[in-house]
Fold this protein.
Amino acid sequence: MTAIVAGLDLGNGYVKSNINSLVRVFPSIAVKQFNTALHTPLGDDEIGTFMNDIINQMDLSFSSPLVRSTERRLFGERALKSGLNLEEFDVYARIGKAEVDLSGVLALATIAADRLYDYYEQNKSLPASDKLKVKVDLATALPIGEYRPHAKLYRQKYLNDGMPHMVTFHNFERPVHVEILFENVYVANEGESAQYGLMFAKDAFLDMIHREAVKRFPNGELNDITGKDLVTAKNTLGIDIGEGTIDFAVFSNGKFNSDASSTMNQGYGSVLESTLSKLQEEGYPYKSRKELSELIHNAPSPFTKKKWTYVKNVNQAEENRFGDVVSSEVSKVFSRVGGFIEVIFVFGGGATPLEWSLFEKLQQRVAEFGDDNLLPIVYLDSDFSRFLNVQGLYQVAQRLRPAAKRKKQAVKA
Ligand SMILES: Nc1ncnc2c1ncn2[C@@H]1O[C@H](COP(=O)(O)OP(=O)(O)OP(=O)(O)O)[C@@H](O)[C@H]1O
Ligand SMILES: [Mg+2]
């Protein structure tokens, strides 16, 4: 049976995955299909094209304790453009990631897609008759606020008492089944895993972190400090600005400090939601914050330039407002941990869009803690810092099998 190592960051906005070192990112959405009679199965000559865009084309059903609703689902661009109701993480609901179908759906779909893609790469054909099987060492995460009540049960659902989860592709003449068995599973706190991503950073990545840090301290305050110094600091505050949450992850003496860490149940998605309702009031036909996010973060065409500029402006007003909300929340966190923190990291997809409104406010707050304290704010570019959680999770996942082996040997001895 094929064995893989997987880090999965199932974000409110985007799934970030790292499977055997291959990183993927796609929107955290699906649609349920209630009418599948009209689908034509793909012909043999279309399968290569399908595989190259599998995440955006797959049509899947699931049999797993992680997924209650058994309709066939579409993903990615096909989901977004289907006109059907989107299944999204509800950033306002009380039900968290550990309880909704979407987490399981996205996790299993990502792994199944990887497995089928890999099989096709090697064989240039679909599996003849029997199922594809894969065993997985998985590290994934829950928001800090959800971890304590839900992490244990969530992990058990993946482990499923040693039984496999089943994913079925419906894109072809015959269904293709992928059987997924989770052998080792680790659930971390979001934001905690990002800190691991920083700790394990090497070479070019370390240089980048250092460059980003130094560039915001023009008076040379950080000149004697290396990238390694920053990422190995023992007492840190990580501010992970996601789409639905902002996680404040505190490390003290090099260890994740769950008492001091917290989650705020708003993220950059709140900016998008407010922009969306403004635009809808004005008669714009946008339906989801995902549609809006894709519009904003992709370069406009000559035809959409004017609309894009207008949307950007509306969005900027919301960013400014939200920058105030975040900095006042940061103030609260500071009054708890400001005394012992040595380095602050700011990262996640919302970091760069909010930087113009947020960075200065953070600096003012830090200055209140005294001038002789050098407390650098390492503000990291979203383009790569959105992936810190998944990179940390992948590092953790790679260590699961050896650790389990050591534990077994220790029990024997
Ligand atoms: N280059 C980019 N591509 C896509 N989205 C981006 C980009 N830069 C910033 N964003 C914004 O970042 C947000 C998503 O950030 P991120 O991927 O860190 O969140 P998440 O992990 O999915 O959410 P959460 O942490 O709340 O679960 C989106 O709201 C999006 O608008
Ligand atoms: Mg996130």
User: Anything to note?
Assistant: The mean pLDDT is 92. The first strand starts at residue 2 and ends at 10. Residues 2-189+389-412 form a domain with the Nucleotidyltransferase; domain 5 fold (CATH 3.30.420.40).
